[in-house]
Amino acid sequence: MHITRKRPDTRQGPAENFTGTVWLDELAAPPAPSRLRMFNVHFAPGAHTAWHRHPHGQVLHVLAGEGLVQRRGGDVEPIRAGDTVWIEPDEWHWHGAGPRTFMTHLAVVEASQDGTTTHWDAHVDADDYPT
Question: Which pLDDT score, from 0 to 100, does residue 16 have?
Fold first, then answer.
């Protein structure tokens, strides 16, 4: 068993992948053969990801606040503290805070064999993000 007690370094989400202010903490990245990755992600009001997909899917569990998630071709869906969302493998989507609320979620993914966890695409069109 391995217990981690050191608090991870918080880093800001890069502008090429996020709109607005986003902070990330990588909570778990166990050594091989595990490919699990777990992040705590904190979104300021209106902040959200660009379109992206994950080779093995993604679990989002909302810890605090209210946010939004949209799958390509689907409606924008509200998410709230206590909600858990499953994103299918390779499903294009975005997620983030609501326009006037903070939102914090855990994001859990499995890396592919080459270590890739996310394929990023274009930013969400401002006309498509609810205000």
Answer: 97
